[in-house]
Amino acid sequence: MTAKPKTRERILQASLELFNSQGERSVTTNHIAAHLGISPGNLYYHFRNKQMIIAELFATYEAQVDDFLRLPPARPLTVEDKALYLEALLAAMWQFRFLHRDLEHLLAADAQLAERYGQFARRSLDSAQTIYRGFVEAGVLRMSPAQIEALAINAWIILTSWVQFLGTVGGAAPAPLSQDLLRRGIFQVLALEQGFVAPAARPEVQRLLERLHVPLALG
User: Fold this and answer.
1) Distance between CA atoms of residues 33 and 50, nearest Å
2) Distance CA 194, CA 206 (A)
3) 141 within domain boundaries
4) Looking at residue 141, what DSSP letter applies?
5) Is 185 exposed, middle or buried (0-12, 13-18, 19+ CB in 10 A)?
6) Which keywords annotate this record (predicted)?
7) Residues with Cβ within 8 Å of residue 39, at least 6 apart in sequence
8) CB 150 within 8 A of CB 65
9) What are the residue ranges of helices labelled H in the chain?
10) How far apart are CA 101 and CA 81, in angstroms?
């Protein structure tokens, strides 16, 4: 028999669902309590305010990204690893999509979260450069150190601004955010690398591009 989730975990899961579906700004602690059928006082026993809930959800997202943005032990990277990294990014972005949709507001509202996010961003950029160097050493990519740094930064810019981009090009009523639309953002990151792919790896990378491509209607 599966144990019933504790109230704290239920609050976090419900908050994530509501933030993702309605947007963090539209959801209050009273909404979360009502959704769970608990009193606001019960919620406040576990979390004093909404910022604490957001901080804990971010910590989970942060740990998830840190876990997969690393080199595999004791073996060279392959093109298939590139697919694994990109799919892991897609899964994390979808699971915590409210963070990407409301990021600017969230960081402006919480100085501690903004500081943590800055550390996370720097760490992620360092990890991305390490992974790109791994692909160079494995003969999948051909890049200089300066190109590796630039590519890591450009990939980060795309990933962290993709949701906002979608909201600005969809006309008066942009399409609802979906996994397919996020997948197109992952495709854009891979597309940045095309000029650096080694000839031997190009057929496999091309197949990966075709797998990730999603048509994007602009306007």
Assistant:
1) 11
2) 9
3) yes
4) B
5) buried
6) DNA-binding
7) 33
8) no
9) 7-22, 29-36, 40-46, 50-68, 79-95, 97-101, 103-109, 111-137, 145-169, 179-192, 202-212
10) 27
Residue 40 is part of which domain span? 7-46
Domain at 207, CATH number: 1.10.357.10
Is 213 in a helix, a strand, or coil? coil
> Are 17 and 114 within one domain?
no
Provide the CB-side half-sphere exposure for 5 (13 A, CA): 9
Q: Which residues contact 148 (CB under 8 A, 6 or more apart)?
A: 129, 132, 133, 136
The pTM of the whole model exceeds 0.85: yes
Q: What is the pLDDT along the chain (219 residues), one digit of tens a residue?
A: 455 679 999 999 999 999 999 999 999 999 999 999 999 999 999 999 999 999 999 999 999 999 999 999 889 999 999 989 988 998 999 999 999 888 889 999 999 999 999 999 999 999 999 999 999 999 999 999 999 999 999 999 998 888 888 878 765 556 678 888 888 999 999 999 999 999 999 999 999 999 889 888 765
Residue with tokens 């972005």: 93
| Residue type for position 194 | Q
CA distance 84 to 177: 22
Entry field: residues in the chain: 219
The SS3 of residue 197 is strand
Per-residue tokens: 61: 């997202």
Which amino acid would we find at residue 95? Q
Token pair of 147 as six digits: 């190109």
